[in-house]
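Tutorial handout. Part one gives the primary structure; part two gives the three-dimensional structure as tokens.
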Amino acid sequence: MLKTTEHRATAALHPLAAMWERYSRRQQFRRMARHLLREKDDTLLDLGYDRHDLEGALRLPVSTDAMQYIERQRSRHAEEARRRHGRSADLRRAVE
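Part two.
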């Protein structure tokens, strides 16, 4: 009987624990993002971040993982840069 009661209590607290984890992770992200947003745009780009992406991530709902969003944006920007670099190299070869 005791195990069933403990299990029910744990099951009831699990959603609260998950919500607390999301909130805690968001607070950590907010501290990191606010620190980064004090930097110049050139510095942010050197670190692989974009000011607009960081500001957008701060406005996401708590249910959305802001760090995952930022990492997806960083990957997208890196892929776009690789494509641009590849096109530039192709153009230089075509001119030569």
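Part three, for discussion. The CA atoms of residues 16 and 75 lie 32 Å apart. The chain has four helices and no strands.
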